[in-house]
Amino acid sequence: MTGHTRQRPLRFVHQGRVVEIDDLPPMTTVLDWLRLDRRLTGTKEGCGEGDCGACTVALGRVKEGRLVYEPANACILLLGQIDGAELVTIEDLTTGGHLHPVQQAMVDHHGSQCGFCTPGFVMSLFTLYQDGGAVTGGREAVLTRIAGNLCRCTGYRPIVDAALEACGQPARDRFVSAAAATATALGDLADEADLFLGSENSFFAAPASLNALCALAVRHPDATLVGGATDVGLWITKQLRALPKIIHTGRVRELLRLEQGKDGLTIGAAVTYAGAQEALAAFDPDIGIWADRLGSAQVRAAGTIGGNIANGSPIGDSPPLLIALGAALHLRHGEQARSLPLERFFLAYGKQDRAVGEIVTHVTVPRPEVGDHIRAFKIAKRNDQDISSVMGALKIGLEGRRIASARIAFGGLAGIPKRAGAVEAALTGMSIDDEAAVTTAVARIGEDFTPMDDHRASARYRLTVAGNLIRKAIMEIAAGSRNETRIAHLREAHHAA
Predict the structure, then answer these.
(1) CATH 3.10.20.30: which residues of the chain?
(2) Which of 81, 217, 380, 486 could form a disulfide with 386 if both were Cys (CB 3.0 to 4.6 A apart)?
(3) What is the location of CATH 3.30.390.50 in the chain?
(4) What is the mean pLDDT of residues 264-268?
């Protein structure tokens, strides 16, 4: 990475000290570094794919002038990704022989049996304790935060009880006391130097600018681009791929921008799901529900909007929603930039309209017009932490009682996320109160999709559900109802879990 900006090693804060690493294998995970290098074995390896939460650690970063702690799956998080952050593990919570309030509550409420999952639960709840989520959100906030942590023996009731006791009051621990000093230390690590560890043949790189990123990607077209590693991490831990060249996008300042303008929203490719959630949810309450069900708190804190688009998965959750909203995708190859409607980016299964070395830079999402009605539905076997069988999103524009426009997109029904063009055309122009015409229009969904059978759902089930979701959305819109009933049902399901 010569000729752009100065380079430096990896730096982060751990146990109150700055850790500086000049070289490391590019595929090194945080979990392996903790357990094998530092011999800190409290962080466990369970599934190795970011599902069970036994490996959860906390990452502290300064965001909007405030120190924020977020949970992270150490098993699929690459060590180079934590540059500039504070790493907190289960070993760091106990001081002077005194348990942290979350740990003490777990003991008092018998929240552990075999104990293997306990460190991960404690670290997820530590992040909830720090941000005060349970103070205002109560039980629902607790359940949302631990949705990415699995327990096979204790059961969740005592864990939730412990969380409500410990996290239901303002945080008072040494991390709060040290917040200003920690923020200053992290601020001292922030710079515009490019991170580059290794050689031209094998490296982990994290450029600080878009120009440096694009130049590096063109020079190394065989490199693997990594956003949050919620997918690429599994290439390493499950598929055992060799990835000698890794380029991380998470330090590129231009890709981290999130801007709300009068015409809409600009989301940088490196903005995480959690980072984009509030801005997207402001468009419609349904989007807030969709966002809460996208992975776990760990996944939402790491996974990026750009990464979810660029990997081209037919069951990715964000592309159908963004397509329905009319989003445009922006890319750059070297110094050449281009844009296209998001739905045109997906060509066929595993194939996208992206040249080798081309970078997804951002997405622009137009603000809904007066008369637009939005619905988003995620259908999966579990309410939380599950891959979609069908992901559907709709934007229906009304002029009086006439459907003036329709954008309907689905994931899980084809080899790519795509629009239901035949259904859209049939709906446009009809009265939203004409139930027979709506039924006829929805029946055309078979012209748009030929789903496959797999272990998540049959083709017949997928097609039937997709049609029913369109019909449900139109019935809700026609009745002028919002989503309060469905929101209440989802909350009840959460509570029952």
Answers:
(1) 11-187
(2) 380
(3) 257-496
(4) 97
Residue 392 pLDDT greater than 60, yes or no: yes
Contact between 492 and 463 under an 8 Å Cβ cutoff? The reply is no
Using the predicted structure, report yes or no on whether residue 374 has a pLDDT greater than 90.
yes
Judge residue 129's burial from the number of C-beta atoms within 10 Å of its C-beta, 0-12 exposed, 13-18 middle, 19 or more buried: buried
Task: Using alpha carbons, select from 32, 43, 27, 33 the residue that is nearest to residue 12.
Answer: 33
- Tell me the C-alpha distance between 437 and 442, whole Å: 9
Tens digit of each residue's pLDDT (9 = 90 or more) over 396-406: 999 999 999 99
What SS3 state is found at 143?
A: helix
441 near 462, Cβ under 8 Å? no
Please give the model's pTM, rounded to 2 decimal places.
0.92
Q: What is the mean pLDDT of the chain?
A: 93
Of 203, 230, 245, whose CA–CA distance to 9 is shortest? 203
How far, in Å, CA of 465 to CA of 449, rounded? Answer: 13
SS3 state at 57:
strand
Pick the CATH number of 11-187 from 3.30.465.10, 3.10.20.30, 1.10.3720.10, 3.40.50.970: 3.10.20.30
